[in-house]
């Protein structure tokens, strides 16, 4: 899959405006199909075996039943694409519908599914190769880890596969699957067809608890559906048409392949093969051997293993893009988005997105069933939040009638499947809750600066921070234009340009600037200090990366222009800090003002930050002689 989310818009502001250049939108409906099928199409290689261990001979029936939910949910993902043309998937759509924290929860759940996609796809790929090369069966864990490390390295280097390569691999895999279907139909006799018919009519023998377990497990057959929501930044315009046609191709190919291959494998493989621990996890290659001999088995193994490895890489890419989106919202440390100096790739995020699946494999092992149960926890949770978010947006926009009811029915189906999965597979539920809980703690602690504030109480860290701030400001002074001053430069001219007021801004905000200008004029002053504090959590990203954020520069320029209109000299200042509170409080003291004016940005995440963490922190840290003025 080509880089699925070149630009996420996680700020939570709904907009139909497309910000990605038209020349970058090269994904046609066919290429959209290829990228999504290269992910979702891998499930057929391991889901039949996993489902068979759960519900036995009922497995084909549940894949057919799961198709209903899959088609309904696919329609919603088309809507996510055109509602969020800049990508972001569940993070962005949940942010629009509810709040940034619901988007955070969705991001964590989909991250779990991405980690498990990498784990399960890699392990399944090694197992399939092991069906023809026994050496792979003897070293499943070590080879799986080695493959993930290899994918990590090539992603850091930046060698990303193109959508055309996705198309080639997807077409090969689909072609082999269709050949397998045709050969199976040709070789099947009346006994085989009788068994198939019996499997499809077993619904009358279903017990309620078996039905719910099978229904919940069948959703794994359509995992990978969420990948389309990350492709919207690269889709050809109009996005709605491209997404709709691409998804139609996905639905058609899944309807043709997944239920039939599951039915054929369960009906035609011998009981001994289906009960064999290794063979049960590679039903499709065993089916190829049964109906077409070694040539067909080798074709299935080659195409299936390639597609599985491709899906693992897709999951790593999707995982680190979720990280980047959460970093933009302030939920994860800024270092996670740091770029490699040589390859300019987010190497830290890539490493984390790869190490976590490796840890999952090392802890859980190569048991595809257990991996599948944990996979379902994150997958169905992300599906549920996405589906409910679309419903909430529709309701808010006044949508009623069958469209709303059908959407809510889809959400109910996903919720039922998720609830059953959590109660039936309690071990996976506990692990999933621990992972998501740890992620929530890390995210909220990062947003509220719990960890960085604690870190900066250490003397050695505090001394390093002072040095890094000085180096960053020196870089600004020597390598950028003189229109913006560092805090050190501004402090040096305090006696020449005294002011009573400092205004702290994060984005252009005329109301806040006007409030500060009016106050300074009322005090008889002719100078106003305006500061933008760039937050760099942890130990910063390096003194060489001193360039101010573009949004901050625009905010300072707007303040200067506003001051010119009112006849007041506005001195724009930039500095860095481990959090906004520390930087603003430090500037207020060093600039010798007696009032600090702050306001709230219009972006929801920053609004929460300014109204919560910054205001509370400044109330504690500002000296008593400096008045805090809030402007809403």
CATH superfamily of the largest domain: Amino acid/polyamine transporter I
CATH architecture of the largest domain: Up-down Bundle
In order across it, which strands form the biggest sheet?
A: 1-4-3-2-5-6
The class by helix and strand makeup works out as mainly alpha
Largest pleated sheet? 6 strands, parallel
How many independent structural domains?
A: 2
**How confident overall, as mean pLDDT?**
81
How many extended strands?
Answer: 6
CATH class of the largest domain: Mainly Alpha
Intertermini distance:
44 Å
| CATH fold-level name of the largest domain | Amino acid/polyamine transporter I
Strand content: 5-15%
What does this structure look like?
There is one protein chain. β3 (527-535), α22 (550-566) and β4 form a beta-alpha-beta unit. A six-stranded parallel sheet has the order 1-4-3-2-5-6, sandwiched between helices. It has 24 helices and six strands. Helices cover 67% and strands 5% of the residues. Residues 1-24, 537-545 and 601-612 have low confidence and may be disordered. The chain is mainly alpha-helical and 632 residues long. It starts with 28 loop residues before the first helix and ends with a strand. It folds into two domains: 23-447, Amino acid/polyamine transporter I, CATH 1.20.1740; 452-540 and 547-631, 3-Layer(aba) Sandwich (Rossmann fold), CATH 3.40.50.
